[in-house]
Amino acid sequence: MTRLNTLLIGFAGLVCASGAVPLRAATHPVVVQFRPALPLAGQTVTARLSNGQSKACWPPATSITRDNATVTINLDYDDACPSQYQTPFRDYVLGGFPAGTYNLLVMSCSNNPPPFPSECNVVLRSSFGVLAPPLLDPAPLSPWVSVFLLGGLAAATALHLRPVRCRRRT
Questions:
Q1: Domain assignment of residue 160, yes or no
Q2: DSSP calls for the chain
Q3: Of the ranges 20-29, 35-44, 135-144, 152-161, which is most confident?
């Protein structure tokens, strides 16, 4: 009886494997575009994943975790891909970061029913940088404000020098 069950499970595995359609997101190279391309510290960073196909299976992230300078996106794939997940790309919000360089790992995980193993594979390694906010430069003065300030300075100087010229020696 045990041997019969083992043979039936093996046969079912062969039938499923021969009729299975590969997941396009996992079989073509995954590329990422970061939005914004050059984020500033504190700005929300979004990773747009695609693989060059017109449509691929892009499920929502099971988890997005950050461990120091490494951000990991876990994508769990089941046997079927619902139609709402079949898109040319998908955006995953990573959050805001302080200035620095960060590594992105995208993990593709398959959740297989027993006795088939479940596994995770790295489908993308990339890095992105976050710029420090720019130092605030003083705004340039308009020409009219400059003329007004220069005229005020000239008037103050003239009023200060006038009493000095008018002194009489006694």
A1: no
A2: -HHHHHHHHHHHHHHHHHHPPPPHHHHS--EEEEESSSPBTTPEEEEEEE-SSSSEE-PPPSEEEEETTEEEEEEEE-SS--GGGEESEEEEEEEE--SEEEEEEEEEEE-PPTTSPPEEEEEEEEEEEEBPPPPPPPPPPPHHHHHHHHHHHHHHHHHHHHHHHT----
A3: 35-44
